[in-house]
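Incident log, support desk, overnight shift.

02:14 A customer reports that sequence design results differ from what the structure should imply. Their input is reproduced verbatim below. On-call engineer (initials T.W.) acknowledged and began investigating.
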């Protein structure tokens, strides 16, 4: 067997199985706590095999996962990593692994299988759960204060003896590999979540980076997940509000609903970068910094947003990019989609009240041009009062749409 130690030497061993994609302090703290509390002589980390068809680009290959697990466990004399599952062809079931260990270990060796409590409650759905729980004791690690009654209930229903389960509280349970992968994808720090050696390994091989999109259309689910990590919670909510409001407007005015959702979702994707980062990115993307953008760095976000949408989210549709690029300033002769996102941004449901919000919303569902004229006028007046410089695109836009102001007044009067 591909294990360094002779397993015959031990009276107690624990198995820590997982994908370890990547291995983190949650896994290590769990294994070490179990080892100490239950007085276990040897802990075997067994990275799981993964069927090749399941390997997409944001998942590390078997060798990477194996090597990261070795790096993370190398300094603990009780820990060892086994290649048994990754070297086994075909699907791997925990029951097969435990059976193999039973053959390799001393006859009366006690085998423990460590798993997160949430995974433990799924054991019922694994292959041969009853036999499994006869061959080994399951150690379910839980967050402090975790309610075990639900798992007990499920076990009883599946006719599995709760005596075969041990519950242990461990700290550090909030860490997960999924979270780490997502953080790497958007260049957020993963320091203190996993061992420095693994962190360096991830960097060295560029693991978990978002790949440029190869699909013809960006996937909304993936975009949403990524935005969740890039934006503050409030901005994230706002973003979803604009996406949904844009779809409603698109329905009303006969525009492409899919494009409206995508543009709404991404309109603020560059908004939460710091001023310093924004300026750096303007340089990178060749966005010219005029007097206004230098003084009001936040105003770069719609222009940067279009570049980020292209570069990091794989959006190629010029209509969608335009709706992102002009959602703050507006411009002359806007496309229907541009008007829709520009307007939805003002009154999506999570938006705070301001003078004119209800009027803009009423107009937006009746006449896009009147609504654009009204909100441009409103915004420019407001910013002039605040002594802010007005972007020339907005000034030209108002000039272009001002003939619709009268219509706006009439429509609003009709409402009264
Ligand atoms: P993913 O986010 O990809 O599901 P993961 O962080 O849950 O990954 P796995 O490799 O799936 O890691 O987990 C291996 C085992 O470790 C599982 O039994 C899981 O329940 C447990 N585990 C995962 N994270 C923690 C943690 N923070 N503390 C304790 N146990 C954990
Ligand atoms: Mg998991």
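02:41 Re-run completed on a clean worker. Output:
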């Amino acid at each position: 067997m591909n294990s360094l130690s002779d397993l015959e030497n031990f009276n107690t061993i624990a198995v820590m199985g997982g994908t370890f994609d990547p291995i983190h302090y949650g896994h290590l703290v769990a294994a070490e706590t179990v080892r100490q509390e239950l007085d276990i002589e040897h802990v075997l980390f067994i990275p799981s095999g993964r069927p090749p068809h399941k390997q997409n680009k944001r998942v590390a290959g078997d060798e990477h996962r194996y090597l990261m697990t070795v790096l993370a466990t190398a300094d603990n004399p009780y820990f060892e990593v086994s290649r048994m599952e990754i070297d086994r062809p075909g699907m791997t079931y925990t029951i097969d692994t435990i059976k193999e260990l039973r053959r390799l270990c001393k006859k009366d060796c006690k085998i423990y299988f460590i798993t997160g409590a949430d995974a433990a409650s799924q054991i019922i759905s694994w292959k041969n759960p009853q036999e499994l729980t006869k061959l080994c004791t399951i150690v379910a690690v839980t967050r402090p204060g975790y309610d075990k009654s639900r798992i007990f209930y499920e076990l009883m229903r599946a006719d599995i003896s709760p005596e075969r389960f041990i519950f242990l509280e461990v700290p550090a349970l909030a860490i997960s590999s999924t979270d780490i992968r997502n953080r790497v994808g958007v260049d957020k720090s993963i320091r203190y979540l996993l061992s420095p050696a693994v962190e360096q390994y991830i960097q060295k091989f560029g693991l978990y980076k978002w790949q440029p999109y190869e699909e013809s259309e960006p996937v909304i689910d993936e975009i949403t997940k990524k935005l969740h990590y890039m934006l503050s919670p409030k901005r994230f909510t706002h973003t979803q509000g604009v996406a949904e409001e844009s779809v409603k407007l698109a329905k009303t005015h006969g525009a492409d609903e899919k494009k409206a959702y995508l543009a709404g979702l991404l309109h603020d994707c560059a908004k939460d970068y710091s001023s310093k980062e924004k300026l750096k990115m303007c340089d990178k993307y060749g966005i010219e910094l005029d007097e206004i953008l230098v003084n009001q760095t936040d105003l770069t976000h719609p222009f940067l947003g279009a570049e980020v949408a292209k570069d990091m989210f794989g959006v190629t549709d010029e209509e969608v990019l335009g709706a992102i690029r002009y959602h703050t300033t507006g411009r002359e002769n806007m496309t229907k989609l541009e008007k829709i996102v520009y307007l939805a941004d003002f009154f999506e449901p999570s938006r705070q009240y301001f003078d004119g919000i209800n009027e803009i919303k009423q107009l937006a569902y009746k006449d896009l041009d009147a609504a654009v004229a009204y909100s441009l006028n409103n915004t420019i007046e407001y910013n002039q009062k605040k002594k802010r410089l007005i972007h020339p695109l907005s000034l030209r836009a108002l000039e272009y749409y001002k003939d619709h102001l009268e219509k706006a007044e009439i429509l609003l009067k009709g409402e009264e």
